[in-house]
Write a structure and sequence with these properties.
The complex is a heterodimer of chains A (237) and B (162). By secondary structure, chain A is mainly alpha-helical. Helix content of chain A is 87%, strand content 0%. The model of chain A has no long low-confidence stretch (mean pLDDT 89). Helix content of chain B is 32%, strand content 30%. Classes of the chains: A mainly alpha (237), B alpha/beta (162).
Chain lengths: 237, 162
């Protein structure tokens, strides 16, 4: 908790060194792009197939577009992205900071009157918080295209119906906007858990290993629990 | 050199994310429900539109010829007024009629246009006179029950006469 306070306090000053932040966006965001877009594509494929299989029993295959879009934009996009993000970027952050600590680099910084929270943690936090909503949006967009590929060219649904039902069913603020809010919250949570685990780990090889594992477990559980709470708050009305 | 290369990639990544958001808002969402085909709009009044939705298809002979552009309530004669945006490529006689139909048993509702016989064509701003409302399941069931009840009472009346 104390770390959260220090981290938040040093967020604004760390922006003065924009170079560090943009390096972290590159490290966290660009390197996660491949896994995010490929998984988004396949999740979209599967949603298209499964959705078509179920909907065709009721003769409402046209609703495939809205099914794919709503499930991706509201739930799967932010959640799966956050889980992959925890595995792809969170572990890297924890291991990096844990090793810095084990190598006494953080202590050395403090000796030189450089605040490691501001110099090391805050730019990584920015990177995660900026990259996560963008990755979630890319995931959802690629997934919708994947659902379209399965639904329209492969199965042969009417493309106009696919898009028009999607457009009449998806609300920009209620669905897309809330999905964005979710992904921001997840980005915040996952990045913070990863940084905290790295910063508080035992400075030994086993300690770093354990911290990395805990990052994935805790971040995933936190994302799923938070998802439930946010969904209940957003869509309960 | 390495640094400036990174910046390009970060810029690309952010642009890609922004493009994805724009895609979600415009293509998947309802921020901009413009279609790129030229349309002309006519209105039709219905006693009951059932669960007809905005952007539902307008079909003639089963082919999509337009979309429902707006649905409003006309307080004057207690009817629903529906604006149909028809594709410019398709023209219909002025005395065409519009029906609200259902695709499949539980499917979505759409508007079917039955072409009339007149030589004049529907133009932008025209009204379709002859309309047929949506079938409301509750009304059908109550009608059915009412008929059954009438039949039943008719049967007992008819019985003694024989």
């Amino acid at each position: 908790m104390a770390l959260l306070g220090r981290l938040l306090a040093s967020l604004a000053p760390s922006l003065r060194r924009a170079r560090l932040v943009s390096d972290q966006v590159h490290f966290i965001g660009n390197y996660s792009l491949a896994i995010i877009s490929v998984s988004g594509l396949f999740v979209g494929f599967v949603l298209g197939l499964q959705g078509y299989y179920t909907l065709q029993r009721y003769g409402s295959e046209e609703a495939l577009g809205v099914l794919v879009a709503l499930s991706l934009v509201r739930e799967l996009g932010p959640v799966i992205t956050a889980l992959l993000f925890a595995g792809r970027a969170g572990t890297a952050l924890t291991a990096e900071i844990g090793l810095m600590k084990a190598g006494e680099q953080l202590a050395a910084m403090e000796m030189m009157a450089v605040d490691p929270v501001q110099r090391v943690l805050a730019p990584r936090f920015w990177g995660g918080v900026v990259a996560m909503p963008l990755l979630a949006a890319i995931f959802s967009a690629v997934g919708i295209v994947g659902g379209w590929i399965v639904g329209v060219p492969l199965i042969g649904l009417d493309g106009g119906g696919f898009w028009s039902q999607m457009q009449s069913g998806v609300d920009v603020f209620k669905d897309v906007g809330n999905g964005m809010v979710k992904s921001c919250a997840f980005g915040f949570t996952v990045t913070f858990v990863a940084l905290l685990q790295g910063y508080a780990c035992q400075p030994t090889p086993e300690g770093v290993a354990r911290a990395t594992t805990r990052t994935v477990v805790l971040a995933s559980l936190a994302v799923l629990a938070l998802d439930f709470v946010l969904t209940a708050m957003m869509f309960s009305v | 050199m390495q640094k400036s290369k990174n910046d390009v990639w970060v810029g690309l990544f952010v642009m890609l994310g922004a493009a994805a958001i724009v895609f979600l808002a415009l293509r998947a969402g309802n921020l901009l429900t413009l279609s790129f085909a030229e349309t002309y709009s006519v209105t039709a009044r219905f006693d009951n539109i059932g669960s007809l939705k905005l952007r539902a298809p307008v079909k003639s002979a089963g082919v999509v010829v337009g979309r429902v552009g707006a649905i409003g309530f006309d307080g004057g004669n207690y009817q629903a007024s529906v604006r149909l945006d028809l594709d410019q490529r398709f023209t219909f006689p002025k005395d065409s009629s519009a029906k609200i139909l259902t695709s499949g048993l539980l499917g979505e509702q759409y508007i079917g246009i039955e072409p009339g016989a007149e030589e004049k064509l529907l133009a932008a701003g025209d009204k379709i006179g002859a309309t047929q409302s949506a079938v409301v399941l509750e009304n059908l069931i109550s009608q059915f029950l009412f008929n059954k009840a009438a039949e039943g009472s008719g049967g007992t009346e008819g019985g003694p006469k024989k």
